[in-house]
Design a protein that fits this description.
It is built from 9 helices and 11 strands. By secondary structure, the protein is of the alpha/beta class.
Amino acid sequence: MRSDGAAAAGSIPGMDAWAWDETLFAGAAAHYGTGRMPYPPGLADAVRDALGLDGTGRLLDVGCGPGSLTVLLAPLFAEAVGVDADPGMIAEARLKAPGIDWRLMRAEELPGGLGTFRVVAFAQSFHWMEQDLVAERVRGMICPAGAWVHIGATTHRGVDTAEPLPLPAPPWDAIDDLVARYLGPVRRAGQGLLPHGTKGSEEEVMARAGYAGPERITVDEGRIAERSEDEIVAAVLSLSSSAPHHFGDRLPVFEADLRLLLRDAAPGGRFAERMRGVEAVIWRP
């Protein structure tokens, strides 16, 4: 979702009441591969070393989106399973890695007969879920020596920086203003709005569910990523807040305006930005 999509809240405000909304990432899946920067290869090594993984056991990626994290971590296990509630995400994942067991399923439907796992991973997805319920159900799916691994990352854009870059930085503030002109000033999510953003307080949720931790590992390669105009456009359309369905029949006009904005910022169509660090947060049942 994400990673990237799992269960979504269609409620307003603050996601306090829950209603599944299948349009959360409608149309976004096709833009992930181009618009989202890949996780650093060192992330898999860091998770392997922290958990002593040796190619045995099973991985479950919850809210797997098109499989970005699943595919990266799968070689560390004997078997990998990815679940996501968005049909488009699962379709993209099956195209990317047909050898992985991909399931169209809401996180709230776990355990779903999937069995137990050495690692259950969440990447950019847990904030969309009914967290207390999911944490409780997943705890029973983790084997005694296993762990919950939450990957925190922002892969559609890099960090804001005043440092010199080899190419112009993407004009993210202007992009946000353009999206707001089309969709309004309050963040969209499916058929609802998110005036207060998504849920936080993961540590409180995990403590209530009886997990021990957390252990935090940061992987920050800090490299400069060069990105094309097409990649920035895809990054915008990969977000739940600016997924293609929000624009309706205005989508071609929005994309044309977005491309004009990008060409004004970088006539050569090339951008650069520093990638964000990625954090792996480990909890144990």
